[in-house]
Amino acid sequence: MRRAWILFALAASIALTASVWAASTEKPRFKRAALTAMEVSFDHRLKALSDDPYLLVGLTRGIYLEGYGAVFTSEVSLSNALAPNPFRPAITREDIVKIRAKKLERLPALRQCMRDMLLAAAASLDEVPASEQIVVGVSLLYRPEEDRTGMPGQILMLGAKGKLLDAKLGRASLDDAVKSREF
C-alpha cells in the first residue's frame, strides 16, 4: 500500500512538472514593448501641448488586460504657476483666477490630444483584438486653494479598437467611436 502511494505521488509530481514546463514555454500573446512605445509617445504628446508645457506629474503607464484591452493612465497639471515658490510666498486671489482661466482654456486641447492618443494606440497596438477597448485616462492635479468648480478631476476616453480604426480611416465618425466621461 505504501508503495502505491509513493508511485502515485511520483506520477502526480511528474505530471505537475510537465504542465508547469509546458505553460512556461508558451509565448505571451501581448508584447510589453508595444505598451512601452505608446507610453513614451503619450508623454511626448502631453508635454508638447503648448509653448508653456503642461506639467506631466506622473509618467504614462499602460497595461494590457486580456479580454478587455489596453489601458493608459497619466497625471497632468494644466498649469504649474501655483507651485510653491520662495520668491512668491503668498498666492493671491488674482493668481488663482488667472490660473483657473488658463486651465479652462487648455482643457479642449487636452481632450483633443487624448482623442489623438486613442487613434494612435488603435493603429499601433496590433496585438489588441478589434473587439477590445483602448482606454486613456488623465487625472488632473489641482492645488488645495484652487477653484475647481466645473473642472474635471479626471478625464476618461475609450473606444473599441475596431471602431477607432474605422474613425481613423474616415469610415466612421470619431464622436461615435469615442466614449468620454469626466469626473
Commentary on this structure:
With 183 residues, the protein is of the alpha+beta class. The protein has one domain (29-182). The chain contains five helices and five strands. The chain has helices at residues 2-25, 32-47, 93-124, 161-168, 174-177, and strands at 55-65, 69-77, 133-140, 154-160, 179-182. Helix 2 (32-47) packs antiparallel against helix 3 (93-124) and helix 3 (93-124) crosses helix 4 (161-168).
Estimate what percentage of residues fall within beta strands: 15-25%
**What kind of assembly state do the chains in view correspond to?**
single chain
Estimated radius of gyration: 24 Å
In one word, what is the shape? elongated
What's the end-to-end separation, in Å?
66 Å
Could you give the count of β-strands? 5
What structural class do the secondary elements suggest? alpha+beta
Q: How many helices?
A: 5
Lateral strand order in the biggest sheet: 1-2-3-4-5
Q: What low-confidence regions span 5 or more consecutive residues with pLDDT below 50?
A: 20-24
Main sheet makeup: 5 strands, mixed
Number of domains: 1
Helix content: 40-55%
Could you give the order of the helices and strands?
HHEEHEEHHE
Task: Give the integer mean of the pLDDT values.
Answer: 85
